[in-house]
């Protein structure tokens, strides 16, 4: 929950848990929004969604998102607008973050901004002359799927050697499993977050 100046008043989080289905995720979102409103002692006046894609920002629908099996065609914009009776908007998470930085952060009053997010995937957002840059039919420019190394690892998009397949969180974990000595003790359930924690603890 943020105010009109972008100050964070309250926050909640929970796992997306996509295998339990869209309805389960929608219920979690509803409960978290209601909880933030109670804690912040304010009402919800609008809802913004930043999500991995592909998605259709102008209609509010999910495309064929490989991280969200069977969610294609679901429309959280319409669903949350119906539940809370407020205006709802959805953007690709990289685009949403870029808009946030342009409005209240490092990109404020700048003519051009590029935002990069590295997590389960790699996303970007571009602001040019105060406006979000979109591709064909309002699509998000998938910079995470630009080719880096044609002989690189397979990517979820079907190609090999995309930036995302080489440097996103799951890619970091796969690389370490492949490159670490056979007797490396931290192989099981390795994540990028754990890799960072191990590095901070001095793990060579």
Provide an overview of this structure.
This protein is of the alpha+beta class and 204 residues long. The protein has 3 domains: 18-91, ATPase, nucleotide binding domain (Nucleotidyltransferase, domain 5); 97-135, no CATH class; 168-200, no CATH class. The protein contains 6 helices and 7 strands, in the order αβββαβαβββααα. The chain has helices at residues 22-40, 76-84, 93-104, 163-167, 169-179, 192-200; strands at residues 46-51, 55-56, 61-62, 87-92, 112-118, 122-128, 131-132. The strands form 3 sheets. It has a 3-stranded antiparallel beta sheet with strand order 5-6-7. It is globular, with a radius of gyration of 19 Å.
Low-confidence stretches: none
- Inertia-based shape: globular
The fold-level CATH name of the largest domain is: Nucleotidyltransferase, domain 5
Q: How many domain units?
A: 3
Helical amount: 25-40%
Q: Can you list the strand order of the major beta sheet?
A: 5-6-7
In the CATH hierarchy, what is the class of the largest domain?
Alpha Beta
What is the CA-atom radius of gyration, in angstroms? 19 Å
How many helices?
6
* N→C terminal distance: 40 Å
- Percent in strands: 15-25%
The main pleated sheet reads as: 3 strands, antiparallel
Q: Average pLDDT across residues?
A: 91
The name of the CATH architecture of the largest domain is: 2-Layer Sandwich
By DSSP, the count of extended strands is 7
């Amino acid at each position: 929950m943020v105010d009109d100046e972008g100050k964070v008043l309250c926050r909640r989080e929970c796992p997306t848990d996509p295998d339990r289905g869209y309805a389960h995720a929608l219920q979690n979102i509803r409960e978290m929004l209601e909880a933030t409103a109670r804690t912040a002692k304010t009402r919800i006046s609008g809802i913004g969604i930043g999500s991995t894609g592909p998605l259709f920002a102008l209609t509010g629908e999910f495309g064929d998102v490989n991280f969200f099996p069977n969610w294609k065609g679901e429309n959280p914009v319409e669903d949350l607008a119906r539940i809370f009776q407020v205006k709802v908007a959805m953007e690709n998470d990289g685009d949403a973050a870029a808009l946030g930085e342009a409005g209240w952060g490092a990109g404020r009053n700048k003519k051009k901004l590029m935002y990069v997010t590295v997590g389960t995937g790699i996303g970007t957002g571009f602001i040019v002359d105060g406006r979000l840059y979109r591709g064909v039919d309002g699509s998000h420019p998938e910079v995470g799927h630009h080719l880096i190394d044609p002989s690189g690892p397979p990517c979820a998009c079907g190609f090999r050697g995309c930036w995302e397949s080489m440097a996103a969180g799951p890619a970091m974990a796969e690389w370490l499993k492949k490159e670490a000595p056979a007797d490396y003790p931290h192989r099981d359930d390795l994540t990028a977050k754990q890799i960072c924690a191990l590095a901070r603890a001095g793990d060579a």
